[in-house]
């Protein structure tokens, strides 16, 4: 089986419903950034030592396929595996669990990210997630996008921030000078 189809040689690609669009369309940019995020999480989980955190990342990676598929479907309501309120609640529960394990100072101050390989890789994934959220927000200005999908990507960036902070081995606080 060959993996090349040649159908994209002229700068177009197929969406889930077989509609052809430009490869640089905002919709393709949105789900392409989700793909980049998924790959980044695949890299990050190689540095995670806690099985529970590893499993959370693995679960999120699977959900990102649903999210990308939904973005690749202009009539998103017809996509069979949409992001749901339960998916959002899962992220919120994990955020609350890991934030509860940090002290108040850790939660409220800026730090220089990346005191461990795991935290550095998770912070990288967080920034990709934030970019995906910006792309999806722009797309939502032009097309109908699920509110649950938009909530999910916002909570996911919060979860990745929380897991990255939790994975820091040393907190190097950034303190701003007061005038």
Automatic annotation (TrEMBL):
InterPro entries: CblAdoTrfase-like (IPR016030), CblAdoTrfase-like_sf (IPR036451), PduO-typ (IPR029499). Pathway: Cofactor biosynthesis; adenosylcobalamin biosynthesis; adenosylcobalamin from cob(II)yrinate a,c-diamide: step 2/7. Residues 3-166 form the Cobalamin adenosyltransferase-like domain. Keywords: ATP-binding, Cobalamin biosynthesis, Coiled coil, Nucleotide-binding, Transferase. It comes from Halanaerobium saccharolyticum. Residues 81-108 form a coiled coil. Its EC number is 2.5.1.17. Transmembrane segments: none annotated. The keyword Transit peptide does not apply. It holds the Pfam family Cob_adeno_trans. Gene3D superfamilies: Cobalamin adenosyltransferase-like (1.20.1200.10). Belongs to the Cob(I)alamin adenosyltransferase family. It catalyses: 2 cob(II)alamin + reduced [electron-transfer flavoprotein] + 2 ATP = 2 adenosylcob(III)alamin + 2 triphosphate + oxidized [electron-transfer flavoprotein] + 3 H(+); 2 cob(II)yrinate a,c diamide + reduced [electron-transfer flavoprotein] + 2 ATP = 2 adenosylcob(III)yrinate a,c-diamide + 2 triphosphate + oxidized [electron-transfer flavoprotein] + 3 H(+). This is Corrinoid adenosyltransferase. SUPFAM superfamilies: Cobalamin adenosyltransferase-like. One of its GO terms (biological process) is cobalamin biosynthetic process. One of its GO terms (molecular function) is corrinoid adenosyltransferase activity.
């Amino acid at each position: 089986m060959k993996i090349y189809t040649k159908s994209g040689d002229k700068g177009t690609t197929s969406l889930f419903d077989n509609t052809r669009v430009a490869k640089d369309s905002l919709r393709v940019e949105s789900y392409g950034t989700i793909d980049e995020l998924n790959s980044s999480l695949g890299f990050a989980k190689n540095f995670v030592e806690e099985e529970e955190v590893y499993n959370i990342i693995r679960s999120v990676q699977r959900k990102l396929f649903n999210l990308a598929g939904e973005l690749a479907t202009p009539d998103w309501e017809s996509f069979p595996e949409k992001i749901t309120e339960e998916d959002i609640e899962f992220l919120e529960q994990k955020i609350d669990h890991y934030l509860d394990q940090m002290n108040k100072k850790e939660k409220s101050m800026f730090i220089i990210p990346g005191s461990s390989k795991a935290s550095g890789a998770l912070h990288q994934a967080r920034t990709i997630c934030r970019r995906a959220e910006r792309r999806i927000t722009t797309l939502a200005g032009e097309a109908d996008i699920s509110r649950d999908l938009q909530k999910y990507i916002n909570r996911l960036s919060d979860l990745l921030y929380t897991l990255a902070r939790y994975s820091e081995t040393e907190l190097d606080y950034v303190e701003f000078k007061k005038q």
